[in-house]
């Protein structure tokens, strides 16, 4: 289909059903117009030839805070904020990309995929993805893409992974007959970040964005993580997921982030192992005095968080499968308390007077205590940034007004779990 035909497709029954599944009924017309603007932008830049639409979501980590790097378990979900793009093969050795959101326009030559000296920026990331496809034995070719995104950057919802998985979906559809798995997408995204950004990322972000819906991931075998989709209708529970930006910290948090996996690994090291997934909580407690002396008290507390967080993921998955939403909410709260007290990733010790995360959590806990409903926890890496709250729909407007009065207008984002990950929109509208 050309651009005009694709626009007409958006008015069809199947397209409307898909848009409703992705964004909710109230958003269908707005999103239809958004897709049309992407198609118009593509036509203005690249012409009116054959084209396909693609979408890839951001993600939320629901439980499993700081467990993936020690090969633990995570419960995550794709959200209704996403990257949307129009793309088509151009039968050349050039990949031409326009990113509207970030005001970028660049061309990558498939014959020159070496990273730049600085190893940073979107162009390097795209080179890394293309090289990852080649290294994994998949086909690549020249294509044109016009992309927009409403995935909030620096908010712990994986804007970069969403972009990566969007491009993976494009390349899979255009050059690999759609035969690739979403796990393959995730590994290619990880390869690009590891080798072209020098970022020691795992697979959590990419997996959650690629697979879609509510998923649990066991990273015990990181090269082949076990992924299970959880069939649960969040909309039926009349709850919304709210992400609250608390303000970016002014301190350099690199040392804080690096210390978490390193200290957990230090505990494992006492037992001759590399990761906490290879030891047990009982072993740590049975040898507590020696482990404290070897690894330090904070390391022990962080390891205990790891073990208990893994258990919570299992409990939450079971609760969702059995329809026990109250148990699920209880464990979101427990996860947050553990992150705050045991993991200790709500503020940095280098600047303990700056505690945006803990302020936001304290205010949210007061709100929840007053209403008697809801749950909250730190979201993502922590130390600065964002929290998440899970609240009944009838309280959301009141909470948003309450928290934005304290933290600033536009700091709260209402989200929903969407059932699809990175997809070719056209393929699901047949």
CATH architecture of the largest domain: 2-Layer Sandwich
Give the tally of β-strands: 12
Q: What oligomeric state is this? A: single chain
Could you name the CATH class of the largest domain?
Alpha Beta
Elements, N to C (H/E): HHHEEEEHEHHHEEEHHHHHHEEHEE
- Class by helix and strand content? alpha+beta
How many domains? The number is: 2
Mean pLDDT: 93
Taking the sheet with the most strands, its summary is:
8 strands, mixed
Structure description:
Strand 3 and strand 4 form a beta hairpin. Helix content is 46%, strand content 19%. The strands form two sheets. Strands 1, 2, 3, 4, 5, 6, 7 and 12 form an eight-stranded mixed beta sheet that branches. Strands 9-10-8-11 form a four-stranded antiparallel beta sheet. By secondary structure, the protein is an alpha+beta fold. The protein contains 14 helices and twelve strands. The model has no long low-confidence stretch (mean pLDDT 93). The chain folds into two domains: 3-230 and 418-429, Ribosomal Protein S5, domain 2, CATH 3.30.230.10; 235-415, GHMP kinase, C-terminal domain (Alpha-Beta Plaits, 2-Layer Sandwich). Helix 4 (121-135) crosses helix 6 (182-196), helix 5 (159-175) packs across helix 7 (204-211) and helix 6 (182-196) packs antiparallel against helix 7. The longest helix is centred in the C-terminal third of the chain and has 25 residues, at 297-321.
């Amino acid at each position: 289909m050309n651009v005009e035909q694709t626009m007409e497709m958006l008015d069809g029954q199947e397209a409307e059903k898909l848009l409703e599944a992705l964004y909710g009924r109230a958003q269908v017309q707005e999103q239809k117009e958004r897709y049309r603007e992407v198609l118009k932008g593509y036509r203005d830049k690249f012409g009116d030839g054959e084209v396909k639409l693609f979408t890839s979501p951001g993600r939320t980590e629901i439980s499993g805070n700081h467990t993936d790097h020690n090969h633990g378990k995570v419960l995550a979900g794709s959200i209704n904020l996403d990257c949307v793009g129009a793309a088509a093969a151009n039968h050349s050795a050039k990949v031409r990309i326009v990113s509207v959101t970030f005001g970028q326009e660049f061309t990558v030559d498939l014959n020159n995929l070496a990273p730049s000296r600085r190893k940073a920026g979107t162009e390097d990331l795209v080179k890394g993805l293309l090289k990852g496809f080649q290294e994994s034995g998949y086909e690549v070719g020249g294509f044109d893409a016009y992309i927009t995104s409403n995935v909030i950057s620096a908010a712990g919802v994986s804007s970069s992974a969403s972009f990566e998985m969007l491009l993976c979906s494009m390349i899979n559809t255009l050059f690999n007959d759609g035969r690739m798995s979403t796990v393959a997408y995730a590994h290619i995204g990880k390869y690009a970040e590891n080798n072209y950004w020098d970022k020691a990322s795992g697979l959590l972000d990419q997996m959650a964005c690629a697979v879609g819906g509510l998923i649990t991931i066991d990273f015990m075998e990181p090269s082949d993580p076990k992924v299970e989709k959880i069939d649960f209708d969040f909309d039926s529970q009349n709850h919304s997921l709210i992400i609250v930006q608390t303000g970016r910290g002014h301190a350099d948090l690199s040392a804080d982030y690096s210390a978490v996996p390193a200290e957990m690994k230090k505990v494992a090291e006492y037992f001759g192992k590399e990761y906490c997934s290879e030891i047990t909580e009982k072993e740590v407690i049975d040898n507590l005095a020696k482990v404290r002396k070897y690894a330090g008290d904070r390391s022990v507390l962080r390891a205990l968080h790891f073990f208990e967080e893994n258990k919570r993921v299992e409990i939450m998955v079971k609760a969702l499968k059995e329809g026990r939403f109250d148990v699920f909410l209880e464990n979101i709260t427990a996860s947050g308390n553990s992150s705050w007290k045991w993991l200790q990733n709500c503020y940095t010790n280098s600047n303990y007077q700056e505690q945006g995360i803990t302020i936001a959590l304290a205010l949210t806990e007061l709100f929840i205590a007053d209403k008697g409903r809801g749950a909250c926890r730190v979201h993502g890496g922590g130390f600065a940034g964002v929290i998440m709250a899970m609240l009944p729909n009838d309280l959301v407007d009141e909470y948003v007004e309450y928290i934005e009065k304290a933290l600033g207008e536009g700091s709260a984002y209402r989200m929903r779990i969407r059932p699809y990950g990175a997809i070719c929109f056209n393929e699901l509208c047949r």
